[in-house]
Design brief:
six-stranded antiparallel sheet; six-stranded mixed sheet; 12 helices; 21 strands; about 400 residues; alpha+beta
């Protein structure tokens, strides 16, 4: 087996690679952004490598990857499954693996405390690959912080040459991050990127799509051919701002993105259907009764009457986003709007309900990914163009 140096040339989808004692830790926000917010939720989300993958060309029939994942354990909640590593060969699924080794982060949602316990490095091994020159991708677990320690193969590897594909930069909440998807290549953005034949950079940040200026600057400074932002649900979850602040914050967020991408197709996506928050403000809380039964479920704790005081609901946010995009688009023809209910609406909820009241299941991710690909990348869509 050949030891393959882990370099930025072999890693896609990360905005920054941090050198650690073990190896490399992919980040989806740069250090300057991370330094401006001490929120543990954000730190956890951006270090989970949704959309990050190793990509190389090789004749190798066996590939080994050593990693140090961080497993999350929530006190009182059902155990979480191990993160999934998906293998693609020439763009097609060719296997998956999991890893039981790694550090453990135990989080008590009731108290907000967290305990980190170190664990061992583990190895995922893919064998029986075709003995031909091929493009290999190993997609890292979308929901598990993963340090890259070592890469080995039984033949030399080289970076995948530029295939001329457009780069799609996307930002959103836990749904975009991939919450409850079966694996990293089946989050809805990964599915949509595959169908649209584009290179994905996924800045979906679970619980952290909060119109933060540092996130807008990260989007501004990341080269891309297509940009989309899916906004709204986390602002309700956190009960972060009122209507008076929301509109100007959206304008500022879009202004910052436009500083770096003045003419790039920019798609603003409003929230998909989420019945608990359609007319009821946040904050969102865990349903403790369900948790006591070993089930994870969320509930809205706001009062619909509070809308009169400017509290945000998904219905209010959709109306405001549609208005803002409509008014801005008069002078910005590359700006577009997509109502999230076109991706997942009433009929979809009846067929594929949200298991925890907030997040879709794997079938829901597939539907949303397919719908987005058709509406955004399809004929007449804002991202329509020649596929790479």
């Amino acid at each position: 087996m050949h030891a393959i140096p882990l370099t930025a040339a072999l890693i896609r989808g990360a905005l920054e690679l941090e050198r650690t004692a073990q190896g490399l830790l992919p980040h989806r926000l740069p250090a300057r952004a991370r330094a401006q917010c001490a929120d543990p939720q954000l730190a956890l989300a951006e270090s989970q490598p949704s959309g990050v993958r190793l990509a190389f060309r090789t004749r190798a029939t066996t590939v080994e990857l050593d990693t140090l994942p961080t497993k999350r354990v929530y006190t009182g909640a059902p155990p979480r499954p191990d993160g999934v590593y998906d293998l693609l060969v020439d763009g097609r699924p060719a296997g998956s693996a999991t890893l039981a080794a790694g550090d453990t982060l135990t989080i008590d949602l009731a108290t907000g405390s967290a305990e980190h316990r170190p664990g061992p490095v583990g190895t995922v091994r893919f064998t029986g690959l075709p003995d031909t020159v091929k493009d290999v991708e190993i997609w890292l677990p979308h929901n598990e912080t993963t340090e890259l320690v070592a890469l080995r193969a039984d033949a030399p590897v080289e970076p995948v040459p530029d295939r001329g594909r457009r780069v799609w930069l996307h930002h959103g909440s836990s749904l975009s991050h991939g919450s409850d998807a079966a694996g990293p290549t089946t989050t809805w953005p990964a599915l949509a990127a595959s169908l649209g034949a584009v290179e994905l950079i996924n800045l979906g940040l679970g619980g952290s799509a909060l119109l933060d200026p540092f996130t807008a600057r990260a989007l501004r400074d990341t080269p891309a051919d297509l940009v989309s932002v899916k906004l709204g649900i986390n602002l309700v979850n956190a009960d972060l701002m009122r209507l008076r602040a929301f509109g100007p914050a959206v304008h500022g967020f879009l202004d910052t993105i436009r500083e770096g991408h003045p003419d790039t197709p920019l798609l603003v996506v409003s929230p998909v259907l989420c019945p608990i928050h359609e007319g009821t403000p946040g904050p969102t809380a865990m349903d403790l009764a369900a948790l006591g039964e070993g089930r994870l479920r969320y509930r809205a704790t706001g009062d619909p009457a509070e809308r009169a005081a400017g509290k945000l609901t998904l219905a209010v946010i959709r109306e405001e986003l549609a208005r803002i995009v409509r008014e801005r688009a008069a002078g910005d023809p590359a700006l577009h709007y997509l109502d999230g209910r076109e991706l997942y609406g009433e009929a979809d909820f009846a067929e594929l309900p949200l298991p925890d009241g907030l997040h879709p299941d794997p079938a829901g991710h597939r539907r949303i990914g397919e719908r987005f690909a058709a509406l955004a990348f399809g004929a007449g869509g804002p991202f329509a163009g020649t596929a790479g």
